[in-house]
Amino acid sequence: MKAAKKNIRHLTQEDIAIELENLGEPNFRAKQVWQWIWQKNANGFEDMTNLAKPLREKLAANFIFYKMKTATQQISTDGTIKAGFRLYDGELVEGVLIPQEDRMTACISSQVGCSLTCSFCATAKLDRKRNLHFDEIYDQVAIINHEAEKKYNKHLTNIVFMGMGEPLLNYPNVIKAIERITAEDGLGIAPKRITVSTAGIAKMIKKLGDDKVKFNLALSLHAANDQKRSKIMPINDTNSLEILKEALIYFHSKTQTRITFEYVMLGGFNDTPEDAKELAQFARAVPCKINLIEYNPIEGGIYIKSSGNTMHRFKAYLEGAKLIVNLRRSRGEDIDAACGQLAGKDVRRVVSSEPK
Ligand code: SAH
Fold it and tell me: Is 288 a catalytic residue?
């Protein structure tokens, strides 16, 4: 039986060189193929125009070349663009481009669906179908970068893993994708411009420390009280605040990187003066900054946004406790592109109306 074709994008440059040699081609071609895959964003072998046609055909006959495709796109009144990406197996994930005056941010997904069940998040209503492969994570960034250049004439400046899925439950692919995103022979984006956001998997936070990663870490805290946190984030039952605190201290000791705490403000639930006090207390554990996030209502959700006044008072209390605090306004809400709203809703609709 003939061996299954290999996916050329999953091979290292050295692997490609060996494969080319086996096909009777000089191995310096490997560099050209590699550049087409990771720098020139080829969509297939036919794009590799500095390779002779017979070689392109030979490659196509011997390897698989998968690249995700943009299936849908929506543009918000605030300029935010949400894209639905179709994967090789028909699954869909979403990514978002958020244009701001001083930066261009891509918000990307790490899994198809999510296995966690945070009660305020739309993605949590989907099952976790599978992990994204590293090239699928990379492709989101490359495609969104291309879109930023096309629509806004600017490159991406920042990347946040705040789309669908829990990045630390897909650790190897996230790390490998970041390696390609930051590599000189990849997208060349500085690790300090990348933020991985986690619901709080203590063991993996420690692993990030052991691996001495150079990118930023954000923890979705949302409550600094175990009872409240467990109520909205069941992952807290096994990764309690005390356990997370210890992991964060460890991470910081290994990386010297300041941690970001995300805190989505749920009206009447986690926005009281007592909550602010508990948050200030918890945040003293490590050098950090706090992002207070406006809650984006989700379909069937039971929470409401905190009022503007409450958010300002909450912020003032934390600042009084000498903490660095930012208020994060919602973006792309009208197209369900805001944090926690990625559920593939519109994508499904558009896909089902496609001609067969
Ligand atoms: N699983 C990771 C990354 C995805 S969520 C994590 O939990 O961090 C990205 C951020 O959006 C998290 O801070 C998450 O708590 C927040 N979020 C989820 N639903 C939201 C909603 N409805 N409104 C505002 N922020 C939300």
Answer: no
- CA of residue 146 to ligand 1 center, whole Å: 25
Q: Is 262 close to ligand 1, i.e. is its CB under 6 Å away?
A: yes
Domain at 69-353: CATH architecture? Alpha-Beta Barrel (3.20)
* pTM assigned to the model: 0.94
β-sheet bridge partners, residue 217: 196
Catalytic option among 94, 166, 262, 333: 94
Q: pLDDT tens for residues 143-168?
A: 999 999 999 999 999 999 999 999 99
Which residues sit opposite 242 in a β-bridge?
Answer: none
Average pLDDT over residues 17-24: 95
pLDDT of res. 193: 98
Q: Whose CA is nearest to atom 3 of ligand 1?
A: 162
What's the whole-number average pLDDT of the chain?
A: 93
Task: Report the CATH number of the 6-64 domain.
Answer: 1.10.150.530
In the block, tokens 């879109």 appear at 147
- Give, using CA atoms, the residue closest to atom 1 of ligand 1: 166
Structural domain boundaries in the chain: 6-64, 69-353
Q: Between residues 314 and 297, which one has the greater pLDDT?
A: 314
Ligand 1 atom 5: residue of nearest CA = 162
Tell me the pLDDT tens digit for each residue of 59-94: 999 999 999 999 999 999 999 999 999 999 999 999
Contact status, residue 198 vs residue 235, Cβ threshold 8 Å = no
Name the region of 237 (left: φ>0; alpha: ψ -120 to 50; beta: rest): alpha
Q: Is 295 in the pocket of ligand 1 (CB under 6 A)?
A: yes
The rounded Å distance from CA 218 to ligand 1 centre is 11
Tokens of 286: 């490590």
Are 6-64 and 69-353 equal in CATH topology?
Answer: no
Catalytic (active site) residue 262? no
Q: Give buried/exposed letters for 210-232 (b at 16+ CB in 10 A, else e).
A: eeebebbbbbbbbbbbeebbbeb
